[in-house]
Amino acid sequence: MDQVKIAPSLLAADFANLAEEVGRIAPYVDMLHLDIMDGHFVPNISFGMPVIESLRTHTDLLFDCHLMTTNPDVYFDELKQAGGDLAMIHIEAITDPTGAAAKARRAGLGFGLVVNPPTPFTAIEPFVELSDMVLIMSVHPGFGGQSFMLEVLPKIEAARKWVDKEGMTVDIQIDGGINPETARLARDAGANVFVAGTAIFRADDPVAAVTRLRQSIDGM
Question: How far apart are CA 92 and CA 111, in angstroms?
Fold first, then answer.
């Protein structure tokens, strides 16, 4: 199975001290997960390009940008200019993402697909080959601090089976309610990239929280 990667979710960080929050955990994680919400595709509004651009000057971490927006492809050039690395878009927003994938590549971004809890894996199956990563949501998008939905585990298994069968080098990411216990369940199902917000940034010791999460995933 692919290398385990930890992606703290910026949404759970202290927005008044983002550089400090990210700098503290940066040496211990693999990428930073940025939830960009438009108040339309999901009810909440989070942050946009100025925040990403400002944070980019403080870290070399890969910026995994989860676009919870109705028209995600219109932001690709701006996202790249702000310092984004990977554009993750919802299949529920663009049901045929072929053109969006090409547009992301032209902008110099990596590309990935996101599927919400009610949406079956078959919705993205024809397009996995266009992706660097697929994200299985284990909560409904738009709000932090939700509980992990166990019913998505078979979807993770389906994604892992498909990627391995086709011989693809595509990461399988899980996002929502991730803690040491649920991360182990997701790992057993086939995930290798773990988005954790509350479990890391809201912990008394975020670095220790990352260590506990990685140990649990590794079965230690």
Answer: 16
